[in-house]
Design brief:
single chain, eleven-stranded antiparallel sheet
């Protein structure tokens, strides 16, 4: 299954130059960082820094609960006309009881005056060492103050491992409803992955 809309749109892996510390203390995993706020391999465009952090607690063997945040007061990416204040907060939960895994995540953020939010709920089932099934419901709202701009996506899929994670084939059926463009699509995606 491809990445959820909240990570594929605005809230995903945004690489930046900075300093990060990660570690574990008992049942707590943490990551804290200070970053330029200008994006991948770009010089710092102002004197301010961005701050981010994530804490995940494993209260029991099969359960992880986490929170995360990111803040940049004078944050400018290439293409931005001026500094933009960016704020992100999120929560996550993973419950795994082999062969079933339940995962959900909610994130919200603001870019100056535009607020956005989204979430997903995913269920995976490992039939055996080679076959895995998955389904996910995604919701994304790019501007919570505007009407009719929500997106939803339902994904049903599976994968077959040819050689562990080194070679596998995956197929997904995706139902996508985008109210902003008033389009509904049904897609079939087939992916082949090889590690070398």
């Amino acid at each position: 299954i491809d990445r959820a809309m909240i990570t594929a749109r605005e809230f995903g892996d945004r690489r930046d130059i900075g300093f990060m510390v990660s570690g574990q203390a008992s049942i707590v995993n943490y990551s804290l960082g200070v970053f330029n706020g200008s994006g991948t391999n770009n010089v710092d465009l102002n004197d301010e820094k961005d701050f981010g952090g994530r804490i995940v607690i494993d209260p029991m063997e099969n359960l992880s609960i986490g929170v995360s945040t990111y803040y940049g007061a004078n944050n400018r990416l290439p293409g931005d006309a001026a500094d933009v204040e960016r704020m992100r907060t999120g929560g996550e939960l993973v419950y795994s009881m082999n062969p079933l895994t339940l995962q959900t995540e909610f994130m919200q953020g603001s870019d100056d005056s535009i607020d956005s939010q989204g979430y997903y709920l995913a269920v995976t089932y490992l039939l055996n060492q080679k076959i895995k099934f998955a389904t996910r419901f995604d919701a994304w709202d790019a501007d919570t103050d505007s009407d009719n701009n929500e997106e939803t996506m339902i994904t049903i899929g599976g994968g077959y491992s040819l050689k562990g994670d080194a070679a596998k084939v995956m197929a997904n059926y995706v139902i996508h409803d985008d109210k902003a463009t008033d389009t509904k699509t049904n897609d079939i995606l087939i992916q082949f992955q090889v590690e070398f």
